[in-house]
Amino acid sequence: MKKMEIREDAVSPVIGVMLMIVVTVIIAAIVSGFAGGMSDNQNTAPTAAIQCSIVKEDADNVVMTLKHVSGDSLKTADLRFYVSYVNSTGTPVQERTQGVSVEGFTDTEGNTVNATVPYLTDVKVGDVGDDDTNYGNFIWNPGQIITTGNGEGFEAITGLDPEDVEIGDIISIRLVDTSSQKAIFDKDVRVQ
């Protein structure tokens, strides 16, 4: 009877190839995790469709109104306004606000109240001046409107004196989510 020889010289290359495949799969999984947004370092901004209008109602009254048309609900405590324009001397100006308290609004009962603008105009939530309608205190849902309410509110948000604003002026409005530092809304708005 013949004696069988067992050769073990082919085992080493097979193990080497299998180790390379395992390392490749692990690297691919890590890259896929980062590319797919699984890393903790990526903050995603909410998305929303917002319409903005600025209307000059008379010589000393300009009102900015923003309507949340669709998308994610927005926590106003996490939203900051950036307003850019060129002033009457030709100098570029940028204002940054996150809600400003303004006096001189009238609630539905005829009382003079303060409100943090832009305030929520949803009567189901509350009246102007109520804590639940003050900017920074509410969740802005699709279909809801926020407004500066009057010339003082407009000036508090934009830094522009309503008397210096003319129909046709362009004001750049940007709304930034402070947790992700990403813009949710960024448009040049023409005063009507």
From TrEMBL:
Transmembrane stretches, start-end: 12-35
Presence of the UniProt keyword Membrane in the record: yes
Keyword Transmembrane helix listed: yes
InterPro entries: Flagellin/pilin_N_arc, Pilin_N_archaeal
Superkingdom of source: Archaea
Domain Archaeal Type IV pilin N-terminal: 9-85
Keyword tags: Membrane, Transmembrane, Transmembrane helix
Protein name, as recorded: Archaeal Type IV pilin N-terminal domain-containing protein
Protein source organism: Methanolacinia petrolearia (strain DSM 11571 / OCM 486 / SEBR 4847) (Methanoplanus petrolearius)
